[in-house]
Amino acid sequence: QLYLIDLNLEPLQTQEEILSYIQKILSLPSESEGVVVEAGCYKGNSTAKFSLAADIANRSLVVFDSFQGLPENDEPHVKNIFGGQASFKKGDYCGPLEEVKSNISKFGKIDCVRFVEGWFDDTMPKFKDRVACANLDVDLASSTRTCLKYLYPLLEKGGILYSQDGHLPLVIKVFDDEKFWVTEVGFKKPTIEGLGKRKLIKITKESE
User: Fold this and answer.
1) Exposed/middle/buried for 177, CB within 10 Å: 0-12, 13-18, 19+?
2) pLDDT in tens, 163-194
3) Under a CB-based contact definition with an 8 Å cutoff, are residues 82 and 198 in contact?
């Protein structure tokens, strides 16, 4: 089914990256009551895959996206840590909401998906659900800061937060900023697996 989705919807993440999150969704402990979160979905390739896992795990999948592409920004991205080009302009990665819903209806399990439309700065402060795990694919340092500020405090103890943007120097700076963690997120900077070394980075929350 995952390969069928890739044949019909452009993938932005590797199957290995997708399977890491799917494995986490399927292994959530029964005592966990949190929802599964995806921030940044583009056309819905990853969303369709995650919804299949969320449905099996009897979880809600909450998808945050503007559905207008990336916001206006002046972040000076040039290259990623592997030497590849990195440029993110307003409107990039735009997947309109109705198109994404149609894609999930065809290839995923839309009944377990809740779409939260709007800019992260507007939608995430209102979100109060407990979070079992979260997957960020948001490209911008500013968007990463918003996601960490509002989603990390909701993450259950033992919960996992992945970022698909660990290869971007400006995003690395956000994750590595101890002052930001303490003053804006409200937690001591956690251990971040793979930071500065790979695209997919991972945090396991050790305390509430």
Assistant:
1) middle
2) 999 999 999 999 999 999 999 999 999 999 99
3) no
